[in-house]
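Hi F.,

I've been meaning to write this up properly since the lab meeting, where we talked about keeping a consistent format for the predictions we share between groups. The idea is simple: the sequence comes first, exactly as it goes in, then the structure tokens exactly as they come out, then a line or two of notes. No screenshots and no reformatting. I'm using this chain as the first example so we have something concrete to point to.
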Amino acid sequence: MRNVLIPAGVLFAAVGLAAAAGTIRSGDASFQLVGAPAFSSAFGDCTFLTDPTEKDQGFKYTWYYRTEGNNTNRLMSSLDTPVETYSGDTATITYTNAGPGVAGAERFDARIEIRIEDGAAPGQARVVGTCRFKSRATVARHYEVFNLIDLDLAGGGTNYAADDGVQFDSSIFDAFQGEISGANTGDIQALNAGRWQVGSSTALRAVLNSGSGNLNNAAGPIVGQDVGVAFQWSLFLQPNEEVTLTAAFAINAPAFPPPPNCPCPGDFNCDGGTDGSDVEAFFTSWAQSEAAADLNLDGGVDGADVEYFFVRWANGC
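Output, unedited:
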């Protein structure tokens, strides 16, 4: 949500050198985390440019957490100052032994990695975020983790966030965003999340910034206002157990692209259909840790890619 359009050059000058260090790039595309530490800005906390001449189409990209004993949603930025690195196309924000209470009670490690990928055509780019979340408690604990994504698709006028629309498809856990006065589209998707919610950006922040609210699986459609998407992962972790949470968003492209040269995400061997041969082809590639098997684009080949593959495979072409 925004009221005025600030040219990218002016924005970079205004926030200074510290914020400039929070920029990652791929080709012509760039993504910047605004605020020190990351996720701490009360209003917009990111910029997202598919090309240097395009308008900024990012506004909020924020992670929250809730622990079992504290039972209050909190921004990750409320934790101790993280270690932040920005190199090439990847940003990494690392929290170690973080969270409320004494060591061993309900603290955790969280390593958030954000990677940008320029698209094949002008106006296309995607950002893939993963959170490697590890319990540091000495007994099994419940944790809730949230990711809020608010894209402001470029269209007519200066307050171009105000005429976006969004709808969620629960069968593939995918949110599709559109712009009434422009042709740009957004695709926002999460893996492994148990809850979601689309709504006005204000309403989503109200849920995540107050008490112990949970997302309500509202799917929309919501049209003609500033909109966002949020995801929630409910975790029950044993001591030192770690999980990987993944969410991605893209403009004018799929959030998670199909294998190279395959128009259908479940058609892993590109033969025009989805059947047992795709399962065999995928697991052959997966067992060898080939890059083609990294379907969720988190930089590794693991169980999250298996889940992604079967969701897409089950939906056919």
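Notes:
The longest helix spans residues 8-20.
The helical segments are 8-20, 201-208, 276-287, 303-314.

If this format works for you, I'll send the rest the same way.

G.
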